[in-house]
Amino acid sequence: MSGRSGDMAVDYSIDELMVTALAAHFVDGDQACNGMASFIPVAAFMLARMTHAPELIWIASSVGLEPRPKRIPASTLEAALWRDSIMYIDQYTDFWNLVLNGRWITKFCVGAAQMDCHGNVNNSVIGDDYHRPEVRLPGTAGLADLCSIGKDLYYWHPDHSPRSFVEKVDFISGAGYLGGGDARARLGLGGGPQAVVSNLAVMDFHPESRRMRLKSVHPGVTVEQVRAATGFELMMPEGALPETASPTPPQLQLIREVIDPDGMRKSGFRTRVTS
Amino acid sequence: MSGRSGDMAVDYSIDELMVTALAAHFVDGDQACNGMASFIPVAAFMLARMTHAPELIWIASSVGLEPRPKRIPASTLEAALWRDSIMYIDQYTDFWNLVLNGRWITKFCVGAAQMDCHGNVNNSVIGDDYHRPEVRLPGTAGLADLCSIGKDLYYWHPDHSPRSFVEKVDFISGAGYLGGGDARARLGLGGGPQAVVSNLAVMDFHPESRRMRLKSVHPGVTVEQVRAATGFELMMPEGALPETASPTPPQLQLIREVIDPDGMRKSGFRTRVTS
Amino acid sequence: MQEKATSIEKAVGLIRNGDVVALQNMATQAAPMALVREMIRQQKRSIGLVVLVGGIAVDWLAAAGVIDRLIGAAVSMEQFGLCQQYRAGVEAGRIRVEELSESLLNARLGAGARQLPFLPSRGAIGTDLVAQNPDNLRMMDDPFGGRAVVACRALVPDVALVHAHRADRFGNVQYEPTAMWPDLAVMPYAARRVLVTAEEIVDSEILRRHPERTVLPGFMVDAVVEVPFGAHPTSFFPAYGYDECFHRAWTEISRDAGRTAAFVDNQLRTPRSQAEYLEAAGGEQMLTRIRARESTGG
Amino acid sequence: MQEKATSIEKAVGLIRNGDVVALQNMATQAAPMALVREMIRQQKRSIGLVVLVGGIAVDWLAAAGVIDRLIGAAVSMEQFGLCQQYRAGVEAGRIRVEELSESLLNARLGAGARQLPFLPSRGAIGTDLVAQNPDNLRMMDDPFGGRAVVACRALVPDVALVHAHRADRFGNVQYEPTAMWPDLAVMPYAARRVLVTAEEIVDSEILRRHPERTVLPGFMVDAVVEVPFGAHPTSFFPAYGYDECFHRAWTEISRDAGRTAAFVDNQLRTPRSQAEYLEAAGGEQMLTRIRARESTGG
What we know:
The complex is a heterotetramer, with 2 copies of chain A and 2 copies of chain C.
Chain A: E1 2-5, E2 8-11, H1 14-23, E3 31-33, H2 39-50, E4 57-60, E5 64-65, E6 87-88, H3 94-100, E7 107-110, E8 114-116, E9 121-122, E10 125-126, E11 135-136, H4 143-148, E12 152-157, E13 165-166, H5 183-186, E14 192-198, E15 201-205, E16 212-217, H6 223-228, H7 249-259
Parallel strand pairs in A: 3-4, 7-12, 8-13, 12-14
Antiparallel strand pairs in A: 1-2, 4-5, 5-6, 8-9, 10-11, 14-15, 15-16
Helix pairs in contact in A: 1-2, 2-7
Chain C: H1 8-13, E1 20-26, H2 33-41, E2 47-54, H3 56-63, E3 67-75, H4 84-91, E4 96-99, H5 102-113, E5 118-121, H6 128-131, E6 137-140, E7 149-153, E8 159-167, E9 173-174, H7 182-190, E10 193-201, H8 204-208, E11 214-216, E12 223-226, H9 244-253, H10 257-269, H11 274-280, H12 283-291, H13 293-296
Parallel strand pairs in C: 1-2, 1-8, 2-3, 3-4, 8-10, 10-12
Antiparallel strand pairs in C: 5-7, 6-7, 8-9, 9-11
């Protein structure tokens, strides 16, 4: 892919754009943690901390506070990521004290196999029969907790397709806006889905209907392509539809040379896109 | 005081007799912990572990597993008691996991200002008005928990008097047999008071009425003295009333020279009884 | 990371009159005494104190008229006896007590830490603690048909006060290996603000050597102040033991209103710094005594 | 202290067919794999597995027909993908899954550890996890009028399986400073029996040097067995990393029924000792690789 940064043409791959697009949602003072197989969010946190949000607080693997990994390792849950932490957070009491309290870990990045028009996600089963599913997915892990506890949720998905973006998920393993409207608020759940960063576009949610809405398309992607890849009718924004900002050369240099020289961020993409 | 051990006359003080009488209730495999100002129980645990119950498990100060204190220090809650432990037990989760689970810490020694005929104890207030008491006592600390969670309870009291042994406590800070009979069992509470070791006698509880009952009198003490010092009608055992066993010379040597050379066990007694 | 190092005056300035203040303490151990003295100096009023097993700190706060209510499991200086000033305050009706067992207090604070409305316990069932506290403790049935429990209502203190072995200036707080009393694990997580004193403020690199000893993340801490011997006269294992002479003197003084008032003025309010306070409390000779290995049990 | 050291055969002999077995594991980390293999060798059947985030251990147990139900939050080998044998078992209806979020699983086990009938959470409200599991999860009102919670019914596994860095022969179990995943803090406390493997069995004096690192008291442990590299092929920080080659080989093998059966026989059932197993898994060269500092992140 290529795009423009200021008046410079730059080449980048879609994983790099997703990293910068996700990083843009994190600011100083935010608190973030990551779970397993979360290369894009981890790269986004590291990038944000090195550029516009040095005071973004990061608990690597939900274990290590303010870690100093050498680079992104092959796992986002193993010790190499929480290298040189300032604190190991006890998982049974302290970490869950933080998660279950809406004051802490204010933002969370959600990755799941399926998501629907109201931002509910499914990482449990594909199919109608929960006890004899067509596909048994990994399971909710901590997703169901983080989605229901007043966190602002940022979704990433490397494979925007009608199979992954569906009208209604087969199983709600993480609560988005549920049936839409005030359904989430009626259950007393704060926070909720704020943005979706896919390999095609950035989406948000309409403030009233809570339906997913196109916010910007990535450079070189058309609205029709996004619509065709979405299994439900995507709302269109009022006014002009902007293009997602391209990564800047300094961002790309950091991602490629410092943060993720091994290219772990490219895993999970159906086709490895190279610049 | 003096008594006989086998065919030997021995001199001992009442605190030493209370230590041996309490120690006699602990056997291999029991699990015990202690709180603050618990010199008699701590001496009893240490003595039992050195003599008849080497496999008595002891969590010193509810912190240190299998400690090796040099001797009983001036506090039974401070670090000197849990010296050289094999494990520091985390207090927020692990220790309360143990306490609240009836399988662990199977016996507990209860000390309190007041106890009544059904083994309820009061360490909270003397007087009728809870919010303007005649005497504000220290408070229940962990007593209320340990008394309600299926532990076998062993009481010690260095000052057997009508003020401390009362028909009904002013405030139940630790549940004994409540109103007696099956009142405790009806609330689903297992365990309960097993024995009381005072400076005059050893008592237990009638298996049906759950009233306190004389079990043995200490050498040199008469039944009438015990009755006069008790603020309710003490039940008498069927059959003969035995005399509490005197400490043996090896027990006394351990208590005086190894376990408690500083005589901490004598604190809490109204009159320091010396041999 | 955000700067949290400040003066003790500014730290305690974050406490408002009427606040509910949770105080780390276990009888003669580990109380943040410098913060307590600063509360007295700033003449805080109508403070509700939350404490697991309070010691001399509670007695000083009672003597100085700072507290008018207490939520806790016990107040005792163990070998040094009852806290006389606290006791007099309760008996006169000036201090109102909500007595909880340790498991019930842990449950109330634990619910606060997790923004749960309540947590259950099976402790204290059958006692008058439950019977006389319907606002915060209720027997409830198990929805699955098992045994009844005591529901313990969430408690969220306004402020938690902590003393630690070391911290960095960003509020990351570290403890040496020692008994971790439950209050440290839950009070800061439950409270709205957290004030910390530490024996020393060190470079963050020092903390990174032992991340498993860090007990509070900097983002949870509002203020951190370096106060050597900041737990005196309570013990702070393995750094130092309790000050026996000081405790013993207080047990005498606290039985007399005039001597108590003089003590509060001279020993607690007058010293302008930790150094002055320690000098008045016995100076280097006293410090040598409490640092002695035997006294800490090490 | 009572002797708990025994052989792996006798330890696993304490597991009965039909038991609910709680397994320490976090994706590619810290699973007691030697105990898992011995379960396969002893042909345990109808086992219900409790796991926070299960990895290759779950896949092996599924491949060998040991488990017929699973209670857990996720099953994944992270970078090595889904567990194919487990997945096939579930999709064919041979393994029944009770999926819980981490906070709900912690609450169920935490209630079991404390003999409470339930513990509440606010996690997973609104999800189908709650809706489709009325036996163990129920929405309930707060008795004090606050927000509703999910009551999570107590779960008491028959057995908990743990791997640790060291232990003494009395079952006191110690961990090196590292991530303490929640399963280690609660599964052994909740379970009726606890079986432990340790990298080394040492004299108790060694444990006494760092009592703060001891995570399980000997009286809670039923059997302890020395098994060097007992977590292989999962990682056991800081001792060694996960075995990438071995995981990668399994992801290929596990897609094929014949190769899977051969693997279970040759690699899991046939080796008569840990030494034989490690030799078959790559021997000293493999051990050097997983011990490398880079692989453990140290």
